[in-house]
Amino acid sequence: xxxxxxxxxxxxxxxxxxxxxxxxxxxxxxxxxxxxxxxxxxxxxxxxxxxxxxxxxxxxxxxxxxxxxxxxxxxxxxxxxxxxxxxxxxxxxxxxxxxxxxxxxxxxxxxxxxxxxxxxxxxxxxxxxxxxxxxxxxxxxxxxxxxxxxxxxxxxxxxxxxxxxxxxxxxxxxxxxxxxxxxxxxxxxxxxxxxxxxxxxxxxxxxxxxxxxxxxxxxxxxxxxxxxxxxxxxxxxxxxxxxxxxxxxxxxxxxxxxxxxxxxxxxxxxxxxxxxxxxxxxxxxxxxxxxxxxxxxxxxxxxxxxxxxxxxxxxxxx
Length: 318
Ligand SMILES: Nc1ncnc2c1ncn2[C@@H]1O[C@H](COP(=O)(O)OP(=O)(O)OP(=O)(O)O)[C@@H](O)[C@H]1O
Description:
Elements lengths: L7 E10 L9 E9 L3 E6 L5 H9 L6 E5 L4 E4 L11 H11 L4 H14 L15 H13 L5 E5 L7 H16 L3 E5 L12 E6 L2 E5 L5 E3 L7 E7 L12 E7 L2 E7 L3 H9 L6 E6 L33
Parallel strand pairs: 3-7, 3-8, 5-6, 6-7
Antiparallel strand pairs: 1-2, 1-4, 8-9, 9-10, 11-13, 11-14, 12-13
Helix pairs in contact: 2-3, 2-4
The structure holds adenosine-5'-triphosphate.
The site of adenosine-5'-triphosphate has 10 residues, from helix 1.
Keywords: ATP-binding, Nucleotide-binding, Transport
GO molecular function: ATP binding
Protein name: ATP-binding cassette domain-containing protein
């Protein structure tokens, strides 16, 4: 096993992803591991990068920077299933079972069993292109489950399933985890799989934070070290820029209060000040320290709050 994995089946290290050179970073500085036998929820507002993160975890996309260590046997249910493939439902599942390394007989048996479990046995001989959306989603889920993956990645996999099939997927996830597999999922229902999730990560800005039980979040990559609080005001209607190293983020009516790891304060300030249009940095402070010593950021090229500043400040930019 890769020594960098530190016991995880897969680990992201300094991972960043953007879709165009010079374009905005969807994810930046992301680092966390996925443990065997754990159920992991990923959450975040629309368009923040949840699917991007899942594709990186599933290995069907590669980071622009950083690395993904480890590649367990992985199966993935995408947000949109490519239903136009030239197979019947059973033919497709058998084919996928073979791709995942099952012998022909085992793949055929698995295909039958999973279609049965999801109440879609009568569609075994139906071409994928003729399946209803719900039946097509059952096939999408079955293809991921049939080879017993070590890492199962589910992007809104419950969407489109009927109640019985949703319950069956809940059971299949519990079986995978009990069997030592890791399952990572995104779902719009905050009550999906209640009480069984081991860890929740929230995509906030371009960072991925650990969501703690009290509902706050802290940077999954940041150490427990010192932090800096940045208050900024956005131009009317501006989207929150991607800011690395965010531990917690609160925004209201264009006002943003970020706690960032002190190690990331320079880069966080730069991200705000060089956003297009730029954000107005209202104050920078070190929690728990006396006012007075954090240097003010310049408006374009910030020297930034000194991460290790022994005292604090409320500093206005100019
Ligand atoms: N293949 C791609 N090419 C270019 N931009 C992309 C691509 N995939 C995603 N994006 C952009 O990356 C950002 C994050 O998208 P992503 O789908 O990962 O977010 P999400 O949190 O899963 O969204 P949703 O909640 O709507 O499913 C969006 O701005 C999106 O437009």
